[in-house]
Amino acid sequence: MCNSGVSLTPTINGQTFHFVVAGLYDGLFVMKDDKTSTLWNHVTGEGMYGEHAGTQMPVRNLLQMNADQAVKMDANMRVAISDRTFSLDGRRSRFKDPDRKLRPMFIETLGEDDVRRPRMDMGLGVWSENAHRYYPVATLRSHGDYILDEFDGEKILIYLDPVTSTPQGIFVAAQEVSFQDNAIVLDGGRKIVSGQLYGAHGEATPVKRPLQMFTRWYGFSLTFPNPDIFE
Amino acid sequence: MSSTLPSHLITFLFAAVLSANATTSESFDINRYNTAGEGWFKTFHVDHTQLLQTALDSGVVSGTMEVLVTQTAAGKLALIMDQMAFHHIAQGTENGKDWMATF
Predict the structure, then answer these.
(1) Between chains, do B21 and A132 touch, taking CB under 8 Å as contact?
(2) What is the pTM (predicted TM-score) of this model?
(3) Does the beta carbon of A4 lie under 8 angstroms from any beta carbon of chain B?
(4) ipTM value for the complex
(5) Cβ proximity of B69 and A62 under 8 Å
(6) What are the pLDDT digits (tens) for A105-137?
(7) Which residues of A touch B3 (CB under 8 A)?
(8) N or C end of chain A: smaller count of CB under 10 Å?
C-alpha cells in the first residue's frame, strides 16, 4: 500500500534471522523474526517490540526501475523469480494512485497524521543520520521533472526517471539539467541513463545515493516524523 | 567516500545509518499494532537466481516489468515488483552473506 521498500541485512549477533509479515503499524507492514518473535520496522530495520527492541539491522537502498533499465545498469544483473504468478506487463501504476484510499484496518494503526500533505500523496523520501526530506512528485513535475537541492551538506539531484516516472535521487553537483530521449543530460557532457551516471566521454562514473524510497506521505512522515518538505 | 571502491559497490553504497529522529522502539505503541496480515503472505526464500538478460531473452521477464534492485554479496539482484507486492519480504544468502529486501 505504501510502496516503501529497503534492503536490510538480516544477521543478528552472527545468526541468520528469518522474517515474516506479522501485521500492521502506522499503516505499514511490520515483520517478526523466527527466533524471538520480536516485531521489526521494515523500513528502518529496527527491532520495535520484544527481545530485540532497539537492535538495528543495516539499511540500504532498494532501487525501483524496469527490467530493461536494470540490465543496462549491470549486464550481470541476476533476477530471482518466485512461484507466484505475475503480469508480464508488470506495471503497478494503480498502486501509485494518489486518490487510492487506505482501508480501515490500516487507518486504525496510524499515528497522528502530518496534514501538510495528503495522506496518500506520493513522493521521494530521502534520509540520513542527520536529516530527512520529502520531495512530492507533484512538486517535481512543477519544477520540470527535476530539482537541484542540497541534502545533508551535499549537492543532490532529484529527478523523475524519463522511462518509469519513478523519482530518484543521486548526489551530484550540476548547474544545468535537461532531458533528451531517455537520458538526463547534465552540464559538462555528463548523462544519467537507467540510473547510471556517465562522464563526458561516456565512461561509467560511480554514483552515490542517499537512502531513499518512493513512498506515500503517510508512510514516510510517520516513519520519519516532521520531515522537511521541498515545496 | 573512497574512490577506490568498485563502482558497483559505490552505486549501492548507502550509509547504514538511521535518522536520529526516526520512529524507534521507544516510541512504539503496541496498542496501535494490528495482526491483520499475519499469515496472509509468504516470505520469498531465494535459493535460485538467473541472469536477468537470459530471462529477458527467453521472454520469462519483459523489459517494461518493474523490478526492485538490491545488492547481495554476489552482485546486484532484481526482484519482480509484482511478486514482492505479495511476498513483501525476500531473503537469501550469497557467498555466506545474508541479504533481505522488504517492500
Answers:
(1) yes
(2) 0.89
(3) yes
(4) 0.92
(5) yes
(6) 999 999 999 999 999 999 999 999 999 999 999
(7) 206
(8) C
